Amino acid sequence: MTETNTGNQTDEHLRYPIGRYNDALQSTPQEREEWIEHLRRLPDHLEEAIEGLDEDQLNTPYRDGGWTVRQVVHHLADSHMNAYMRLKLTLTEDQPTIKPYEEGDWAKQPDAFGMSVGSSLLILRGLHMRWTFALESLTNEQWGRTFFHPESQSWTRLDTQTSHYVWHGQHHTAQITTLKKRLGWV
Prior knowledge:
CATH topology: Four Helix Bundle (Hemerythrin (Met), subunit A)
Distance between the termini: 32 Å
Radius of gyration: 17 Å
Strand order of the largest sheet: 1-2
Shape: globular
CATH architecture: Up-down Bundle
CATH superfamily: dinb family like domain
Helix content: 55-70%
Number of strands: 4
Number of helices: 9
Largest sheet: 2 strands, antiparallel
Number of domains: 1
Structural class: mainly alpha
Order of helices and strands: EEHHHHHHHHEEH
Strand content: 5-15%
């Protein structure tokens, strides 16, 4: 992969400010408690990251060719709703096949670039309350339940999915906070 240099930062660093995700193939109860706490706090961290941004700033891409801050916030709501539904399917069906979606196409929809970010913050607050409550109730056996992803042709354990979405929330929040630092908005 060729990286382009943007000032002192490469495109790779702008795209993945906390690094790429590394699979958690299995987990310990302590790791799962930490993940649940991260998911519980994500809406607060995201709200902190966008606090005080005006409309022009919300409409600024976090990198050249990337989504705007507004699209990132709406994407988090879309993506985490899908993750929650995958959790529920995996708990109520035997090894379900989940439905993929085209996140890039979702980010181009009018609600992703035209609505206030407040609506997605509300979704994330309620969703993460339900999601963390559900995760706290899982047994050790349930953490190992799996779903099939037809695009990647792979099985995903619920603990792996949970660790991925902890990273996902931190990843997109960091895209916003690094943009703010880079452009001197803090």
